[in-house]
Design brief:
The chain is α/β, with parallel strands linked by helices and 280 residues long. It has a single domain, classed as P-loop containing nucleotide triphosphate hydrolases (Rossmann fold, 3-Layer(aba) Sandwich), CATH 3.40.50. The strands form 2 sheets. It has a 9-stranded mixed beta sheet, with helices on both faces. Strands 1-2 form a two-stranded antiparallel sheet. It is globular. The protein binds adenosine-5'-triphosphate and magnesium ion.
């Protein structure tokens, strides 16, 4: 019985050296770009350590959590840290809540930011008011994603912002519905690309996770575009409900899988109490 031995493939013609030319050029071109990362403090020391130094400068991060888990407090703490300790002005894009109401809430919390706003170290941009003015002026002109992105970048430029917060991201996507995944994906891709093109603007977007859901974001696409995801939540520990924070994804960071337990302390913000040890 003969055994069929597969015939060796005929020798391939050598690939012309020129075929590699473009790759070589790319490689040469890429070399000067490779530098060690520059980190931006998140405002929470333990989280900076878990991230290997903090957020990577110029990138976009997602802070996800159910309602009331501390996304806004985290975001403001991130901006305050930059404005107060690093000479990094910050801009906060509010969509859900009028700025006035937010500032009142912050003051009640013990964070009176009026002086920082006056000194242009912090700016609060109320997108809802901003857009309704455009609607009035330009008779229901369709608000293009490009226009929204431009408005944000212009505002950031005005105060030379190095930090940006969009809290939360979902309502900014006008005209998009959770079913319209393609539209949302393109909008977000364009936005993250534009923001990261600035190179020095480190962004935190927040996303509300529907209570009880296993999702990380409203549209299910935000997480793929972000460099890292921080999840805030509430969990039961020893019969008590505690606030928890953990890193769900951290591109290019030797992130440790640590779940922190934290408190929200008026005038101070997020205070890590220790690590979570499941006791169910
Ligand atoms: N003055 C205060 N003193 C102590 N804790 C406060 C104070 N104000 C708010 N908190 C705590 O902070 C939590 C709210 O945090 P935050 O507003 O950051 O949540 P969020 O995730 O942004 O919620 P949402 O999804 O509704 O925007 C509240 O649930 C409350 O426990
Ligand atoms: Mg909030």
């Amino acid at each position: 019985m003969s055994v069929a031995i597969p015939q060796p493939a005929p020798p391939q013609a050598p690939v012309a050296a020129e075929a590699y030319g473009s790759i070589e050029k790319q490689l040469e071109y890429a070399v000067p770009e490779i530098a060690s990362f520059d980190y931006v403090s998140t405002g929470v020391r333990e989280l900076d350590e878990a991230l290997g130094g903090g957020f990577i400068r110029g990138k976009t991060y997602l802070v996800a959590g159910e309602t009331g888990c501390g996304k806004t407090i985290f975001s403001i703490q991130y901006l305050l840290t930059g404005a107060l300790y690093y000479d990094e002005p910050g801009i906060y894009i509010a969509i859900d809540e009028p700025t006035e109401q937010l500032l009142k809430g912050l003051k009640r919390f013990g964070w009176d930011v009026t002086e920082l706003i006056r000194e242009r170290r912090l700016a609060f941009l109320d997108m809802r008011t901003h857009f309704s003015k455009i609607y009035l002026r330009e008779e229901r002109r369709k608000i293009e994603p490009r226009y929204i992105i431009e408005s944000i970048l212009n505002a950031a430029k005005k105060i030379k912002a190095k930090r940006l917060v969009i809290d939360p991201i979902a309502p900014l996507i006008y005209g998009g519905t959770p079913e319209d995944v393609l539209y949302v994906r393109e909008f977000l891709r364009e936005m993250v690309f534009a923001l990261e093109s600035v190179g020095t603007l480190t962004t935190v977007m927040t996303s509300e996770i529907p209570t009880g859901s296993k999702q990380l974001s409203r549209f299910g696409v935000e997480e793929f575009l972000a460099t890292g995801i921080i999840v805030l939540g509430l969990e039961e520990m020893g019969g008590e409900i505690v606030r928890v924070m953990y890193l769900r994804k951290a591109r290019w960071a030797p992130a440790k899988p640590i779940k922190f337990v934290f408190d929200i302390v008026p005038a101070t913000g997020i205070v890590i109490k220790g690590t979570y040890r499941g006791s169910r």
